[in-house]
Design brief:
The protein has 419 residues and is of the alpha/beta class. Helix content is 34%, strand content 22%. The strands form six sheets. Strands 12-11-8-13-16-17-19-20 form an eight-stranded mixed sheet, with helices on both faces. Strands 2-1-3-4-5 form a five-stranded parallel sheet, with helices on both faces. Strands 6-7 form a two-stranded antiparallel ribbon. It binds cytidine-5'-triphosphate (CTP).
Length: 419
């Protein structure tokens, strides 16, 4: 999320801001102000330790509301605050999120106000961790973060730099304007229903092509980008079906999934579903080749070398485009290692697509298995590609959906414009 000037949102969104006990707690004040500038109403909850760093009075004065630290405290005006607080929020942000709160959230511990609020919250959750580098890199913290990601929690990774404790490395709270921008992207999904009436069909993850009963050909795709698109489209009001190959993350709640393994199975599932869809996005990393023959038994190592003959798999995206019905938008991805935009433009034309999302898979923190992506959106009829900075996959997904909405409102689809 690069923009330093956060955009504002249309309606008055309600944000619950949780503040934990870390040296970065003072930066939560900037997050609060940024959200208010963008038009949000913000209520604050603090852990008891956070109050050692910043007084609740600071947040009370700025938010204009009672700051909840302990819902059992006699001055708490609401007897079931963790329920009312969490249920009335469109988004829960925790900034800074300490290693301790991350561990508690990941394991469902609800022993204070903020942890109970998290468990009672059905709105999207955004965590902005901040901690010492060694604590951040500890396998326990990374394991807990992984759990939270698969529970659908959005994480805005800490920055690298010099820490308050003097060490240098990742762990510093992400800049408040980046946290605000990520929050606004998520809120857009909760408040905008600009895709209602659309029926998305999205291919997700990697395919697996069997060589024999124990071996296969596959790739590093995690499914994170495809599922981010599915989650964002669902949030923006669409009905979503995901045809999923092999993924390392769970599908988002409320999305219909059809599980497949090989490119052939994925092609069949797409063929069956396409007629009922209005938008097709090919986000899967489909194997381009598969073994020409699958051995029925495990191949024994009884010779010095082994040659596998490979044959082409069906090009699911090209088939969907070639057989498209009136009104269907067809969107593809282009994972490139060189000449990014030029190669992606060739794909747009040769497969007759409406939009190509191009990413350079050689960039750090981009593409396969990363939580962030750096994409270029190339829309049919536009002279210039939309080059975007590195951002979370959730934010990137919303940018792709914005391009779809623009295309839908402004221009015809590829087939209708050329026929
Ligand atoms: N794709 C597909 N079916 C295939 C291969 C690719 O649907 N058998 C889709 C992918 O989901 C992606 C797009 O095609 O949306 C581009 O995939 P990519 O591998 O980047 O390009 P290819 O068209 O396969 O061409 P090349 O590998 O030569 O770059």
């Amino acid at each position: 999320m690069a923009s330093s000037e956060p955009q504002s949102i249309d309606s008055k969104s309600k944000v619950a801001l949780g503040v934990c006990g870390g040296i970065a707690a003072y930066k939560a004040v900037e997050v609060l102000r940024g959200l208010q500038r963008a038009g949000c109403t913000v209520r604050v909850a603090m852990t008891p330790r956070a109050c050692e760093f910043v007084q609740p009075l600071t947040f009370k004065a700025l938010s204009g509301s009672h700051v909840i630290v302990d819902d059992y405290a006699p001055d708490n005006p609401d007897p079931i605050a963790h329920i009312t607080f969490s249920q009335s929020a469109d988004l829960l942000i925790v900034a800074p999120a300490t290693a301790n709160i991350i561990a508690k959230f990941a394991n469902g511990v609800a022993d204070d106000f903020l942890t109970s609020t998290y468990l009672a919250c059905s709105a999207p959750v955004l965590l902005a961790p901040a901690m010492n580098t060694t604590m951040w890199e500890h396998p326990a913290t990374q394991r807990n973060l992984q759990k939270l990601r698969s529970d659908g929690v959005h994480i805005i990774e800490p920055d690298a730099g010099e820490m308050a404790c003097g060490t240098i490395g990742p762990g510093r709270l992400s800049e408040p304007d980046r946290i605000v921008a990520a929050a606004l992207e998520l809120l857009k999904g909760t408040t905008q229903h600009d895709l209602s009436g659309e029926r998305f069909l999205i291919t997700v993850g990697a395919t697996r092509e069997d060589i024999d009963p124990v071996r296969f050909i596959s790739n590093r795709s995690s499914g994170k980008m495809g599922f981010a698109l599915a989650a964002a489209a669902k949030q923006r009001g669409a009905r979503v079906t995901a045809v999923t190959g092999i993924t390392t993350v769970q599908p988002p709640v409320g999305v219909k999934t059809i599980e497949v393994k090989s490119a052939e199975e994925m092609a069949d599932a797409v063929r069956n579903e396409l007629q009922n869809s209005t938008i097709f996005i090919a986000a899967a990393a489909v194997a381009d080749y598969r073994p020409a023959k699958q051995a029925a038994q495990k191949i024994k190592k009884n010779s010095e070398s082994l040659t596998l003959e490979l044959e082409r798999t069906p090009d699911i995206l090209a088939q969907a485009s070639a057989t498209r019905h009136e009104g269907l938008l067809v969107i593809g991805f282009a994972a490139e290692t060189e000449n990014l935009v030029a190669n992606a433009q060739i794909k747009l034309r040769s497969k007759n697509l409406d939009i190509v999302v191009a990413n350079d898979v050689t960039l750090a923190n981009s593409g396969f298995d990363s939580d962030t992506n750096t994409i270029n959106i190339i829309t049919r009829g536009d002279n210039e590609p939309l080059g975007l900075p590195s951002m979370s996959k959730a934010a990137a997904a919303n940018k792709v959906l914005d391009a779809i909405v623009r295309l839908r409102s402004g221009r015809a689809t590829a087939k209708t414009s050329t026929s």
